[in-house]
Amino acid sequence: MPLRIDVITIFPDYFAPLQLSLMGKAQQSGLVTIAIHDLREFTSDRHRSVDDTPYGGGAGMVMTPEPWGQAIDAVVTDQSTLIVPTPAGKLFSQPVAAELAHSTHLIFACGRYEGIDQRVVEYYRPRIDVRELSIGDYVLAGGDVATLAMIEASVRLVPGVLGNPESLVEESHQLPGVEYPSYTKPPTWRGLDVPEVLLSGHHDQIARWRAEQSTIRTTHNRPDLLPGS
Ligand SMILES: N#Cc1ccccc1Cn1ccc2ccc(-c3cc(N)[nH]n3)cc21
């Protein structure tokens, strides 16, 4: 059963990259189907408006609920998971990507302006799995880039999408800490040599060196990922 993804957005062109490279191949292989929907197709006024002023005052505009209700109703089933990117959401992570990769149907609601009327989340929460997700502690201009990131991180974990699932084992955020540095030809580049141990053929020594490098890198770049932190 392929993973079905429906993306609802006012900027469908943001998702053209999903036709390229690994994401494109995943769709051609039938492992994943991705459909992009223009939210404005679900408006009913002449101006195809999707936003209005916020109740309670404040800067900016808020996306009105009805176009979202019409758009989500057009694709939702009782197997759907509705994902709403927002700076206020739970943090998206590799374990969350793995969960999404094993879902049946994902609906991404890509907000803009100051976000989507909260009643959209409130309406669907009793009916289906709804997840408000952030991709990090910074504010984007909308949910589209966050959705691209979450789709790419999740789809690459769908069984069969990656040619060599081996490469999933040692990558960062699968194992505790971050991954070791990588090198390839030439053996010397602008006076810089590849670490000798990697050319030695001694696989135990190479494994030990890589484990040490992972710890050094994690300590320096991501001490929060060190065991016991
Ligand atoms: N909301 C909001 C908001 C609030 C204040 C100022 C600007 C925005 C823009 N915005 C509108 C929709 C939307 C969706 C997701 C993100 C988002 C996710 C992460 N991890 N960062 N930013 C931002 C989004």
Outline the secondary-structure elements.
Layout: E1 3-9, H1 21-28, E2 32-38, E3 51-52, E4 62-63, H2 65-73, E5 80-91, H3 94-101, E6 105-109, H4 119-124, E7 129-134, H5 144-155, H6 166-169, E8 188-189, E9 192-193, H7 203-221
Parallel strand pairs: 1-2, 1-6, 5-6, 5-7
Antiparallel strand pairs: 3-4, 8-9
Helix pairs in contact: 3-5
Bound molecules: the ligand N#Cc1ccccc1Cn1ccc2ccc(-c3cc(N)[nH]n3)cc21.
The ligand N#Cc1ccccc1Cn1ccc2ccc(-c3cc(N)[nH]n3)cc21 is lined by residues 85-87, 111-115, 134-136, 138-143, 146.
Account of the protein in words:
By secondary structure, the protein is α/β, with parallel strands linked by helices. It folds into two domains: 3-163, SPOUT methyltransferase, trefoil knot domain (Alpha/beta knot); 166-225, tRNA(m1g37)methyltransferase, domain 2 (Trp Operon Repressor, Chain A, Orthogonal Bundle), CATH 1.10.1270. The protein has seven helices and nine strands. It has helices at 21-28, 65-73, 94-101, 119-124, 144-155, 166-169, 203-221, and strands spanning 3-9, 32-38, 51-52, 62-63, 80-91, 105-109, 129-134, 188-189, 192-193. The longest helix has 19 residues, at 203-221. Strand 5 (80-91), helix 3 (94-101) and strand 6 form a beta-alpha-beta unit. The strands form three sheets. The chain has a five-stranded parallel beta sheet, with helices on both faces. A two-stranded antiparallel ribbon has the order 3-4. It has a two-stranded antiparallel ribbon with strand order 8-9. Residues 85-87, 111-115, 134-136, 138-143, 146 line the site of ligand JEW.
